[in-house]
Amino acid sequence: MCMTILFFGRLSDRFGPQITCDLPDGIDDLAALTAWLEHRHDAKGLLTEPSIKVMVDKVLVHDNPKLKGSEEIGFLPPVGGG
């Protein structure tokens, strides 16, 4: 199965706008995926900052859902501007 991971705002500068990949072996929930992404990109806690919101299949999540590998994951930093 193929998963799409989207990065918005300042996160897209660090990770690129999108990654499409198979769910790595041993990764079965959002926390494990986030840790894997941070390790893979040497992001040092960037995706786990309290201000970063996560959507799974366009639904904002506040917990650690299990993943099947076909989801669309979005990492959203706070929106700024004036």
Automatic annotation (TrEMBL):
Xref: InterPro entries: Beta-grasp_dom_sf, Mopterin_synth/thiamin_S_b, ThiS/MoaD-like
Enumerate the Gene3D superfamilies for this protein. 3.10.20.30
Pfam families noted in UniProt: ThiS
Name of the protein described by the UniProt record? MoaD/ThiS family protein
Source species: Hellea balneolensis
